[in-house]
Amino acid sequence: MEISKLDPNRIDAHRRDQAERGFPLLRACPNTSAMRLVRNLDRLGQAELMALFDQWAEYDRLCQTDAATPAAQMERLARFPVLAAFRKSTADLLSEKSVSTLPVKTVAGALNDPQIGGRAAAWARFLQLPPEAAEFTTPHARHVDDLVPVKPRHLRVALKRGMEGRFAATEERLSTDTTRYIGRLRAWKIAVDIEFVSNRGWRRHHQFRYEIWLGPKGGGRLHVPGYEALWSVPAEWDYVTVENLERSVAALCDVVECTRELGSVADTGEILR
């Protein structure tokens, strides 16, 4: 995931600051990839975290100056064993199933099965999962009554309201599924492109993906494929519920603001059409 247009020193400082504060921005993202990542980070001690961030920062700086094929990227990553081991352990968590690490559409759909009867414990037993798989450990849901995926049209309305309120953004439809919100943040132009999953895409587990464009005051542009790119996970949000909708909108605005603070060097070119 390309983050080469952001300041590597600021990214490194941000990761370490987030570690000291318990990763509040990642925890606020209703994104099960981010939620699994936080679980893995929580398992590390302070010394392990610092060793990880040392290699991560060095790896990021190398990526800025050393373009490579996917095979070469894997070979390059192998030179950073602490980072490589952490990424592998995080990928291994993809097989970990719980009410807090699977997309809300998936969990809500399973709980609606007559054999499950809306009970998380019954769902865990049905899938032969350990009892802790039925425990809520995420700030995004407290119990099964919270597991109601927000409807796409309500999500669109809430995001539009949030972008208008935080960034004085205007809305531009790029396609049936993609909307661009164009605004300003402390003298910078910003654009947030959001690709929604419609009711026709119900089988797709995520609810939307997003990317950020930043236009510095002096001209040029920065493109970031979501705040989560700083942590090497996709910016696909899949745990937005009726109950956490407003918190989720606020979290998206927060990560856009944070990403703007990490930008320093821009390419030439126009950001907004």
Describe the 3D structure.
- Helices cover 43% and strands 12% of the residues.
- It has 10 helices and 6 strands.
- The protein has helices at 8-20, 24-28, 32-42, 46-65, 70-77, 81-92, 104-111, 120-126, 152-167, 245-261, and strands spanning 170-173, 178-185, 188-196, 208-215, 222-224, 236-237.
- Strands 1, 2, 3, 4, 5 and 6 form a 6-stranded antiparallel beta sheet that branches.
- α1 packs antiparallel against α4, α4 packs across α6 (81-92) and α9 (152-167) crosses α10.
- The longest helix is centred in the first third of the chain and has 20 residues, at 46-65.
- The radius of gyration is 19 Å and the shape is globular.
List keywords for this structure.
single chain, 273 residues, alpha+beta, six-stranded antiparallel sheet, 12% strand, globular, disordered C terminus
Mean pLDDT: 87
N/C terminus separation: 24 Å
Largest sheet: 6 strands, antiparallel
Q: What is the helix tally? A: 10
Short description:
With 273 residues, the protein is of the alpha+beta class. It is 43% helix and 12% strand.
Question: How do the strands and helices of this protein lay out in sequence?
Answer:
Layout (H helix, E strand, L loop, with lengths): L7 H13 L3 H5 L3 H11 L3 H20 L4 H8 L3 H12 L11 H8 L8 H7 L25 H16 L2 E4 L4 E8 L2 E9 L11 E8 L6 E3 L11 E2 L7 H17 L12
Helix pairs in contact: 1-4, 4-6, 9-10
